Amino acid sequence: MRISTSLFANSFLSQMNQLQSQQMQLQNQATTGLKVSLPEDDPATMDQALNLQTQAAANTQYQSNITQLQNTATTAATAMNSLQTVIEQAGEIATDAGGVNSSTQLATYATQVGNLIQEALQAANTQDTQGNYIFGGTINNQPPFVATTDSNGNVTAVTYQGNTDESQTPIGAGQTVSAQVPGANTTGSGPSGLLADSRSGANLFSDLISLQQDLTSGNTTAIASTDSPNLTTDENHMVSSIAENGVLQSTLESASTTATQLGTSITTQTSNLTSADLATTLTKLDQTQTAYQAALQSGEMIMNLSILNFLQ
Amino acid sequence: MLGLFGTLNSAASSLAAQQEAMAVAGQNMANVNNPAYAREQAVVQNNMPIDTPAGEEGTGVGVVSITEVRDSLLDSQIQSENSVTGSYTAQQTALQNAEACLGEQLTNSGNSAASTGGLAEMLSNLFNSFSSMTTGTGDPATVVQAAQEVANQFNQVSASLSQARGNLNTSIQNDVASSNQDLSQIAALNQQMIVVQAAGGTANNLVDEREQTIENLAGMVNISTSAQPNGSVNITIGGVPMVTGGNAVDSLQTCDAGGGQLLIQDENSAAPLAVTGGSIGGNIAARDGALAGLQTSLDTLASQLITQVNNIYTAGCDSSGGTGQDFFTGTGASDIGVNSALVSDPSQFQASSAPGAGGNTQIALSLANLATQNIAALGGQTLTQSYAQTVSNLGAAIDTATGQLNTSQSIGATLANQRSSESGVSIDEEMTNLMQFQKAYEASAQLVATLNAMMETVIDMDNPIST
Do A169 and B128 touch (CB under 8 A)? Predict the structure, then answer.
């Protein structure tokens, strides 16, 4: 093949260009640590990477949701423990009142029960850090339990003005829980009411008020036959509510662990798809640079040589 | 018999011939770096011999023609390949611009590679903000902000793509103007060629110039050439004659087909021309193919987002019992926006499925679940999956164009090398030839000197040699 002067120069230039562009690509990979950065580099990997990115972000959101629910569950647990104490104390009073005849003593007990009712009201109307009432079902902007008092300042009735709905929160793919507990549920279906539930027969406030009234009127028979057993029912119901809260907290804990593991797994998958193996990249870069150097040197030798060097 | 004077003439003709040959070699060397130049050769032939009793006697030598070494088959192959390269270059550039408009690029942020600042991240943020509202402690201002970012990104990408489309149209118009200039120039060169050839000569530099112009034209639009016996080259585009002989009989025009589509027609018949090669063809293919597809995908995605979200949202109630408002306004990627009433007062976010229940976040939950819902209008994919596929499709189109461009450039380089090998100037060769001509010139000059001496001897013949 006949070689013209420009043939070699053009060929040399295009080889240089190729080597330089290879160098640039490898250098870029080494710097960013990624072998895929634009959609054109590897369309299929880009598709997967974007989907994994979305999954990772959703997973982070689940963890955030779980934290929020854990706060609510903890606040609820504290309130439930207070209510448990109230019920136990009321139960003791009811038992003790059975063997008491003195009306003064009974009156003292009645006052104590009155205090217990206030404590229970306070606990039942617990608010979270944002001021939402946590035991009103989905009605959280007003106290769920409202007391009507008589002229003596004694509570005569406590009404529940919340509802029995609960809102679900996503804590994992396809998994939702609710940290809400309605204060009372007399409908016979749905979530268990905290203080009153027609299925278990619990009705704390009504039982406490009844106890107080029986103590005031000195009706120890009713205390023994009605109030005491009712308070036992209330206590059993509260124990099961606390147990449910425990289950919720444990569910949240395990969902949190799952989310953490999933996050790690997604990171690993993404890394496998997109990361450039530094050792391989640097080796290839080294090879390309060697080739570039060799091309430059040999090009220089050949281009400097022509017949003109030898003619006088 | 030639005689002394005859031989002198013969030597003189040789001197002239060597000089001309050296001039041709000099011209070749001067044009060694001219890519459009095809090397010339001085064709040297015997002058007419005379008949003598002893046989034919030569009367010297002359340069009968200066011919170009050029392979017209290679030339036409290079023209075709120029069209292909021009087309794929234009497509690759246009699609890479679109990729930049989308702005999805993986970077190592945090502990994992992610594409930040693009629609994928913003859609993800939007659905996560809905999810945070389900805990009852979420801030609706965050939701509104996330939604505005999504809407803004859609608007921005849509506007960038429209602008890219406009730029392509401008490019096409510029190329059409350049093509018409080239066509006129080819016609003018044809006219000159016809005149020169009719006078019996050859015009090598005109051929070079015309070939270069044709190749330039081929890079912009696919053409067919046919060489005519009178020395001109006829050009047709899409079967329509553009240059016939020395006349530019037709030219290219752009016509607005509506919807931002600029197409090509020829001026005389105003009938549409199908341009399938060159940068014009490439720009049209990219504009009406991948770019238009991308714009449609984004519009569909935005439209589905608006519809699906609003369907769920309008049934929701806000904390003061208000209901029935839309979340998103607009119909597509260019005009999607967030309801301005909601923007100015985020507390109007309708998270609840029942009035008066501030802890009810059922609507927010349904909105959050939209992220993983398969939508029929998107081919059964979720919103994010559909977007990821759109990005991936664009990447695949660029990848294909790049692959085809590399192949075409490789073929083009091979053809160029072949042409250079055939028609390119080699300094070594010209220098060697130069030495040949120099030696021949010296020899002929020596002959002239010898004849001169002989003639002096003849003229001195009437002077006897003094003793």
Answer: no
Expressed as residue numbers, the domain containing A223 is 63-267
Task: For residue B88, give how far its alpha carbon lies from the nearest alpha carbon of chain A (Å).
Answer: 15
Give the distance from CA B300 to its chain's centroid. 32
Asked if residues A138 and B357 have their Cβ atoms less than 8 Å apart, the reply is: yes
Q: What are the phi and psi torsion angles at B50 (to 5°)? A: -105, 155
Q: Specify the pLDDT at position B406.
A: 95
Of B85, B93, B106, B139, which to mutate for an interface test with A (greatest number of A Cβ within 10 Å)? B106
Could you state, in order of their start, the residue ranges of all structural domains in chain B?
3-69+425-462, 76-413
Q: Roughly how many angstroms between the first and final C-alpha of chain B, as a whole number?
A: 34
The pLDDT value recorded for residue A8 is 86
pLDDT at B466 over 70: no
Q: How confident is the model at residue B203 (pLDDT cuts 50, 70, 90)?
A: confident
* Residue A165 in domain: yes
B91 — pLDDT class (breaks 50, 70, 90): very high
- Does the pLDDT at position B9 exceed 60? yes
Count of structural domains, chain A: 1
Task: Determine which of A17, A22, A40 to mutate to test the interface with B (most B C-beta atoms within 10 Å).
Answer: A40
Q: For residue A35, is it within any domain? A: no
Closest-CA distance, B372 to chain A, in angstroms, reads 9
Q: Give the Cβ contact number of residue B370 at 10 Å.
A: 20
Kindly report the nearest CA distance between residue A156 and chain B, in angstroms.
27
β-bridge pairing A196-197 and A184-185: parallel
Across the range B111-130, mean pLDDT stands at 92
Which residues of chain A are within 8 Å of residue B362 when distances are taken between CB atoms? 167-168
Pairing of strands A169-172, A155-160: unpaired
The domain that holds A238 is classified in CATH as: 1.20.1330.10
Of A2, A47, A306, the CB nearest to B427: A306
How far does CA A109 lie from the centroid of its chain? 44
Average pLDDT over residues B139-149: 94
Residues of A in contact with B96 (CB under 8 A): 40
* Contact between residue B186 and residue B235 where contact means Cβ atoms under 8 Å apart: yes
* Bridge pairing between strands B112-115 and B106-109: antiparallel
pLDDT, tens digit (0-9, with 9 covering 90-100), for A35-66: 999 999 999 999 999 999 999 999 999 999 99
For residues B408 and B420, give the distance between their C-alpha atoms in angstroms, rounded to a whole number.
Answer: 18
- Angstrom distance (rounded) from CA A149 to CA A108: 19
Residue B141: what pLDDT?
94
From the list A4, A10, A56, which residue is nearest B426 (CB)? A4
What is the pLDDT, as a whole number, of residue A24?
A: 94
Contact assessment for residue B281 and residue B88, using Cβ atoms and an 8 Å cutoff: no
- Residue B50's SS3 state is strand
Give the pLDDT confidence score for residue B467 in this predicted structure: 55
This model of the complex carries an ipTM of 0.90
Other C-beta atoms within 10 Å of B83: how many? Answer: 26
Say yes or no for a CB contact (<8 Å) between A61 and B131: yes
Nearest CB to B115; choose among A50, A61, A174:
A50
Q: For residue B61, which of B14, B117, B123 has the smallest C-alpha distance?
A: B14
Quote the mean pLDDT of chain B. Answer: 92
Candidates B304, B282, B374, B344; CA nearest to B83 is B282
Sign of the torsion formed by the C-alpha atoms of A16, A22, A27 and A32: positive
Cα(B276)–Cα(B283) distance, integer angstroms: 10
In a domain, A68, yes or no: yes
- Is the residue at A185 inside a domain? yes
pLDDT digit string, tens, across residues B428-437: 999 999 999 9
